[in-house]
């Protein structure tokens, strides 16, 4: 056995894995489903569905408000998800993990609690052209209120960030730098460690939108060296309405609450309310407790597979799908970065041109689910000069046979269109 064979991860038994995902065996319009929309939201394994079901059947109560057994069990489930998330992203402390409804809430928390009180006229926030609107619009909203500006670092034709340009934007007026770990449209993996290093040299905190990274790669916020990292549960096998913001304790301690209400205070008086310490300071109101029971199950599932095995399969699938899509006549692929997660955005041009939405609708009739549109990334569409793309986004539960079926479905759709 050579060294490579010794260290190569065991291949995934994808058929066994697919059996864990009830939805993958359904049909759509009488055809077996080909689900290539996992960057939008992932499908859920039975263990996650059962964790949510079990919560409502056996443990349902509110968190932290009741000393009875059910209340303690619900609190344990909710706080257990914090432990699981902290472990999952290697946070130095569970108290640095704020549970949120997803990435959008996590980034808005940083915008309103961290950025807004610090920004003054002339200040700037840096983001990039390839970001999801969730990593652009919150910054615009707080910039508008304060007289600050939002600057966007450019990308090249391959869909890679032009790092020198990003670094040039890191001037003394910049109060926060932002970047997506992985682009939801292009699949590009951004060099977060390098960006974090440059930000640290200049004393600028860095926020990373990890929505599209956490489902595909091991995230280690300490190794990355960033200040804020946002993840969303629903793209990594967990229920919708779950997510987290990790932030360095020094930032959290200096941040006022974003939402006020129950569960986030130490004492309320009309003369002045004393807020709870992080993380509870930022978790007003009743959270998605059942959803977080599902988050723990989702993390257990992902860790049970192991990211090395998951990655090997996904990268193999990405290469296979990219080659197959590139061979389509008149195709234009968006995003050819050196390091990518399994996302292929494309358009069929020339004689076969059709609006991406029409293509996606016709593909749906063939049982194929892909996303079409601007993918909440208008500036990126503007950069490429197109209104929309078709996006096939894959996950470890997809197969090469599904890629073949997808390509065959495109062939049938084209015949209909000509
Ligand atoms: C890169 C990126 N950021 C943010 C979001 C928004 O995440 P959420 O659905 O958790 O609000 C998405 C979802 O599409 C995304 O892909």
From TrEMBL:
It catalyses: (sulfur carrier)-H + L-cysteine = (sulfur carrier)-SH + L-alanine. One of its GO terms (biological process) is cysteine metabolic process. Its EC number is 2.8.1.7. InterPro entries: Aminotrans_V_dom (IPR000192), Aminotrans_V_PyrdxlP_BS (IPR020578), Cys_dSase_SufS (IPR010970), Cysteine_dSase (IPR016454), PyrdxlP-dep_Trfase (IPR015424), PyrdxlP-dep_Trfase_major (IPR015421), PyrdxlP-dep_Trfase_small (IPR015422). Transmembrane segments: none annotated. Pfam families: Aminotran_5. Catalyzes the removal of elemental sulfur and selenium atoms from L-cysteine, L-cystine, L-selenocysteine, and L-selenocystine to produce L-alanine. PROSITE patterns: AA_TRANSFER_CLASS_5 (PS00595). The lineage of its organism: Bacteria, Pseudomonadati, Pseudomonadota, Gammaproteobacteria, Lysobacterales. Keywords: Pyridoxal phosphate, Transferase. It comes from Luteibacter yeojuensis. This is Cysteine desulfurase. Residues 34-406 form the Aminotransferase class V domain. Belongs to the class-V pyridoxal-phosphate-dependent aminotransferase family. Csd subfamily. CDD domains: SufS_like (cd06453). SUPFAM superfamilies: PLP-dependent transferases. One of its GO terms (molecular function) is pyridoxal phosphate binding. Its cofactor is pyridoxal 5'-phosphate.
């Amino acid at each position: 056995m050579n060294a490579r064979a010794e260290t190569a991860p065991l291949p995934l038994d994808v058929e066994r894995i697919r059996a864990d995902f009830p939805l993958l065996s359904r049909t759509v319009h009488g055809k077996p489903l080909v689900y290539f929309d996992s960057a939008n939201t992932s499908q859920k394994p039975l263990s996650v569905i059962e964790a949510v079901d079990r919560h409502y059947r056996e443990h349902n109560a509110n968190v932290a408000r009741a000393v009875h057994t059910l209340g303690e069990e619900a609190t344990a489930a909710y706080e257990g998800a914090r432990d699981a998330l902290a472990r999952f992203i290697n946070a130095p402390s569970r108290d640095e993990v704020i549970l949120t409804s997803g990435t959008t809430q996590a980034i808005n928390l940083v915008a309103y609690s961290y950025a807004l009180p610090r920004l003054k006229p002339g200040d700037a926030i840096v983001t990039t052209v390839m970001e999801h609107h969730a990593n652009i619009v919150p910054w615009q909203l707080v910039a508008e209120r304060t007289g600050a500006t939002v600057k966007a670092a450019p990308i090249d034709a391959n869909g890679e960030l032009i790092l020198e340009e990003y670094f040039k934007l890191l001037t003394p007026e910049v109060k926060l730098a932002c970047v997506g770990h992985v682009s939801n449209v292009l699949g590009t993996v951004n060099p977060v460690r390098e960006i974090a290093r440059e930000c640290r040299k200049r004393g600028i905190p860095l926020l990373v939108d990890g929505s599209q990274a956490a489902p595909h790669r091991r995230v280690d916020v300490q190794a990355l060296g960033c200040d804020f990292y946002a993840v969303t549960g629903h793209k990594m096998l967990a229920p919708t309405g779950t997510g987290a913001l990790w932030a360095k304790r020094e930032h959290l301690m200096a941040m006022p609450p974003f939402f006020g209400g129950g569960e986030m205070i130490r004492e309320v008086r009309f003369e002045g309310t004393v807020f709870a310490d992080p993380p509870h300071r930022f978790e007003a109101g009743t959270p998605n407790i059942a959803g977080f029971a599902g988050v723990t199950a989702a993390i257990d599932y992902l860790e049970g597979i192991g990211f090395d095995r998951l990655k090997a399969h996904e990268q193999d699938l990405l290469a296979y799908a990219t080659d197959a899509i590139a061979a389509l006549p008149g195709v234009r692929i968006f995003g050819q970065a050196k390091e990518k997660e399994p996302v292929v955005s494309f358009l069929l041009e020339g004689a076969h041109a059709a609006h991406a939405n029409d293509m996606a609708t016709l593909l749906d009739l063939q049982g194929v689910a892909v996303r079409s549109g601007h993918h909440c990334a208008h500036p990126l569409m503007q950069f490429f000069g197109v209104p929309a793309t078709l996006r096939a986004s894959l996950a470890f539960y997809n197969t090469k046979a599904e890629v073949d079926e997808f390509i065959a479905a495109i062939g049938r759709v084209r015949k209909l269109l000509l």
